[in-house]
Design a protein that fits this description.
The protein is of the alpha/beta class. The chain has 2 domains: about 1-60, 2,3-Dihydroxybiphenyl 1,2-Dioxygenase, domain 1 (Roll), CATH 3.10.180; about 70-133, 2,3-Dihydroxybiphenyl 1,2-Dioxygenase, domain 1 (Roll). The protein is built from 2 helices and 8 strands; from the N terminus they run βαββββαβββ. The chain has a 4-stranded mixed beta sheet, with helices on one face. The radius of gyration is 16 Å and the shape is globular.
């Protein structure tokens, strides 16, 4: 059976990106790898079931821009969305949208910007089904 595994994004500064996803958003650094002459990589997530692969290209290239990376990532948060957004803003994180209710009105969402200009959607956990499905 197929399943979602990871999202890979190019970053301009690997250490800054690791710090953002671990210290600011609270994910864990799962692993870090160096591929001589090719790329440095780091893997961040709660676990290996779904994670973000951060790639710093070691080959000469112009700086990455938003259009040649990825549209957005989504991270489920622990705790209160409003408090999370206040904490992130106090740490200098740019809040792009929200917090507001999702289009379906079932949970709070917000969008913040990572150090590379990539939007990161923050979602509160889904409430368990009342019907027990």
């Amino acid at each position: 059976m197929s399943r979602y595994l990871h999202t890979s994004i190019f970053v301009n500064d690997l250490d800054e990106s690791i710090r953002f996803y671990t210290e600011v958003l609270g994910l864990k650094l799962l692993d870090r790898a160096h591929y001589e002459g090719n790329a440095d990589m780091a893997f961040v997530g709660a676990d290996w079931n779904a994670y973000i692969e951060l790639v710093y290209d070691l080959e000469d290239h112009p700086p990455y821009e938003l259009g040649n990376r990825y549209e957005h990532l989504a991270v489920e948060i622990d705790g209160d969305m409003q408090e999370t957004c206040r904490r992130l803003a106090a740490q200098g994180v740019r809040i792009l949208k929200g917090p507001k209710k999702s289009p379906g009105g079932t949970r709070w969402i917000a969008f913040v910007e990572d150090p590379n200009g990539i939007p990161v959607e923050l979602l509160e956990p889904k409430a368990p089904d009342a019907g027990g499905s």
